[in-house]
Amino acid sequence: xxxxxxxxxxxxxxxxxxxxxxxxxxxxxxxxxxxxxxxxxxxxxxxxxxxxxxxxxxxxxxxxxxxxxxxxxxxxxxxxxxxxxxxxxxxxxxxxxxxxxxxxxxxxxxxxxxxxxxxxxxxxxxxxxxxxxxxxxxxxxxxxxxxxxxxxxxxxxxxxxxxxxxxxxxxxxxxxxxxxxxxxxxxxxxxxxxxxxxxxxxxxxxxxxxxxxxxxxxxxxxxxxxxxxxxxxxxxxxxxxxxxxxxxxxxxxxxxxxxxxxx
Length: 263
Ligand code: PEP
Ligand code: MN
What we know:
By secondary structure, the protein is of the alpha/beta class. It is 41% helix and 14% strand. Strands 1-2-3-4-5-6-7-8 form an 8-stranded parallel barrel, surrounded by 5 helices. The longest helix has 17 residues, at 229-245. The radius of gyration is 17 Å and the shape is globular.
């Protein structure tokens, strides 16, 4: 799978893997809607130490199995260097969370791997700090780095964070790295995820990372911002129109021309 080419890539799934049934419902829904990768946290960086911290290794096994069943590669967060051997063996993309953007030991360890890394922008990081964090991974020789804008802290409190779409266009202009947008953490409001996803597609992002939960009201993590499977499916149907306006298309294994020709 190519990220950063003409094909626009959509990664979706629950904030956290909570159990076999929840994950299967989420994976089936996002796969049927046309997502390209399955997301799911098994090590969760929670603000409170008493909140659900993720299922750990058993959750990772569920994620791997669900991805295989539905033909989707997986992306999951690695929080600590000690988790790297396990995560690097099983996760197709290693996510570095916003809170770890400047965990230089972790970044250096990721630089030694030859696996794709999605590096989230820190809660209050400037774009320059974000690029320097990416440089830690690249300098180690791991060239498969994608940036992820997930909203930053500003004086605004109406939304969970402030989505900095100009930073997406800025990073696309000044670096060769793919840029993914996470409208879920950026807004914290389900009804804003679709419009911000379309805006991200319009401004040059290379893909999306979206939280989808089969029963948002029962979620153990980030349920208040989870998109319903139905709303996600509607978004997937609307994306191609916006992408076409900026000469892009949803990623497909063969590319749209070959698929059209085969029909
Ligand atoms: C997440 O993707 O669930 C997550 C914890 O995101 P962030 O690091 O952007 O807060
Ligand atoms: Mn989350």
